[in-house]
Amino acid sequence: MVPNFLIVGSAKCGTTSLYSWLKQHPDVFFPENKEPSFFVHHYAIDDWNVYQSLFEKGAGKRVVGDASTSYLSSPESPEWIRKILGSDIKIVILVRNPIDRAFSLYKWMTMEGYETSCPFEKALEVEDQRFSDEEFRIHSPEFFWDYMYVRSSLYGEQIKRYFRTFDSDRIKILVFDDLVANPASIYDNVCDFLQISKTFRPEFTRENKGIIPKNVALQHLLKQNEWRFRSLPRVASLWHKGVVQCIEWNKRLAGESRLETTTRKKLAKVFDEDVSWLGDLLGRDLSHWVMT
After folding, report:
1. For residue 10, cis peptide bond before it (omega within 30 degrees of 0)
2. How are strands ordered across the β-sheet holding 90-95?
3. Peptide bond into 119 cis (omega under 30)
4. Phi and psi of 7, rounded to 5°?
5. Are 226 and 247 a contacting pair, CB within 8 Å?
6. What is the pLDDT of residue 161?
7. Is the distance from CB of 154 to CB of 98 less than 8 angstroms?
8. What global pTM score does this model have?
9. Which ranges of the chain does DSSP label H, i.e. alpha helix?
10. Tell me, what's the pLDDT at 44?
């Protein structure tokens, strides 16, 4: 068993929600590991037999899926996917206001303890340095492109790679705004694309919301220790429980996270041309995304 359907990204554009809705459908199988990310260098599962084994329980299902958001930002993914899974695979891409998407990704990265640069503007400042640092590219604590808040939010070249590799009728592009405003309509749209029944109605929950913790550096330290204690014997269980409680406390104490107006204006200029291209591709006006 191998996937015949991929949700390739982008991260923080509603992919986890869509995965959750489709996973409930009786004709669809997704592994519990939402993002095996096999078709990416230096990240997650790199053994073909292990990857295949994730989908063994999907035998008999019309749709077998892999929802790895790393596949959109990683330049190597489209050709690799085509070579292994073939040209008939169906691909869903989700996009979002790139400014909101970049900030949402940053919030998730700090919440999970992967990002130490604070505030958001500092993380933007070090992006160029990180991008050119080969050691960081290979050994970054989390997926490298998740630290590229601006670069991974420039959808144009990422989407073009898929259109150069697959026929356009194999690709479906969805907009986060529509997913939030009318999840049932988006669900029906995807069911039509996958040629499965729309009569089954899932529970339309929203998943994977991020928040900047009260103390970003502390969250990083706590998360590192939580992972360490998780693998220790039972004698460490109380330590593990205490660390988890501190992680949640650090999140609960967080105030509302707002993007600075000056930062939004700067990013609007960066994304303006890319948003215009995407609007032309989708045949809709997205200029409000970069209005300040």
Report:
1. yes
2. 28-29, 63-66, 5-9, 90-95, 171-175
3. yes
4. -100, 110
5. yes
6. 98
7. yes
8. 0.90
9. 15-23, 48-53, 70-73, 77-85, 98-111, 120-125, 127-132, 134-139, 155-165, 176-181, 183-194, 216-230, 237-252, 261-282
10. 83
CA torsion sign for 99, 104, 110, 112 is negative
Tokens for 129, please give them: 């340095």
Task: Report the topology of domain 5-97+150-208+271-290.
Answer: Rossmann fold (3.40.50)
Secondary structure letter of residue 252 according to DSSP: H
How far, in Å, CA of 12 to CA of 147, rounded?
Answer: 13
Contact predicate 30/19, CB 8 Å = yes
Spell out, as residue ranges, where the chain has pLDDT lower than 70.
Answer: 207-209, 225-240, 249, 253-256
In whole angstroms, what is the distance from residue 223 CA to residue 218 CA?
A: 8
Q: Does residue 95 sit in helix, strand or coil?
A: strand
Q: Determine contact, residues 75/164, Cβ cutoff 8 Å.
A: no
Kindly report the number of other CB atoms within 10 A of residue 259's CB atom: 18
Quick: pLDDT tens for 162-183: 999 999 999 999 999 999 999 9
The percent of the chain in helix, strand and coil, each rounded to the nearest 5, is: 55, 10, 35
Burial class (CB in 10 A: 0-12, 13-18, 19+), 263: middle
Q: What residue segments make up the domains of the chain, in order of their start? A: 5-97+150-208+271-290, 216-252
